[in-house]
Design brief:
With 321 residues, the protein is of the alpha/beta class. The chain has 2 domains: 138 residues, ATPase, nucleotide binding domain (Nucleotidyltransferase, domain 5, 2-Layer Sandwich), CATH 3.30.420.40; 167 residues, Nucleotidyltransferase, domain 5. Strands 3-2-1-4-7 form a 5-stranded mixed β-sheet. A 5-stranded mixed β-sheet has the order 10-9-8-11-12, with helices on both faces. Helix 5 runs antiparallel to helix 7 and helix 7 crosses helix 8. It is globular and about 60 Å long.
Amino acid sequence: MARPVLALDIGGTKLAAGVVTPAGDIVAELAGATEAAAAPSEVTEALLDLGRRTMAAAGMQPGDLAAVGISFGGPVDHANGTVITCHHLAGWEGLPLRDMISEQTGLPAVMDNDGNAAALGEVVFGAGRGSRHLLYITVSTGIGAGIVIDGKVHRGANSMAGELGHTHLVPYGPKCTCGRLGYLESLAAGWAIAKAARDALDGGARSALRSVRRDELSAKHVMEMAHSDPLAARIVSRAGEYLGLGIARAVNLLNPEVVAIGGGISQAGEVLMAPVRRGFSRHVMPELGRDLRLVTSELAPRWGLLGAAALAVREASKAQA
């Protein structure tokens, strides 16, 4: 029987570890907070400690496992196993995290950014099982993507493929976090949805959203109230249609079989997915959209953990080949 793997997930606010079987069953898992002010060495040690305690909870030692997979919340150099940068935590640039984890656990390790890891997770365990061409889109505070072509993750020339959030949609549109104007993130990401609500309220709009303190108003509040509040419904509809447009552009280029949408905002349900499908159908080339499956992720809410597990399962299978 194939051995389980250790999955490690590093996000901007959360760390997670799991022991996962090659079939995607989670034997044990633990989570902890990511301390934004902590040094990379401290975060790494906290993650390793989480991994050790998770193995203990599963009744296993490193020798019982086949490999360790690492999902990192930021761009990484997959080939060299180093962090390129991290938008949420300071001091990670150039860190050889893959080799550090491998040395401490004694296991072969593989690392990728969270979008690529989740895309592979969908193919191995989730909505893309049986497919060879998949586009995974994460919609949360920001918007990113992972691309699987012919069963393999497509990373691009320098491991930076999949920056769907920085697709240009609207000339001279809202400013993105990168400083450019009219990018998808500035129109449909979580922070953009919250900003649109605050701007509307500041302009005098009547809405139940006024019951939330302005400095606490988030995309989650807007999504929850979109079922009954006209302003919230308009904001979500607009964001969803822009997201559908962005997806259509990617599909017209890549021609996947499946588009899986993950990330916290994706769990809003039909209030978001209905406008996404409208925007998509208006802009996709009909021949490319006809047989495509546009679905929400089946890995929620463990995109990072099961993505990391998929990386490790693939790594272990390559070693056995």
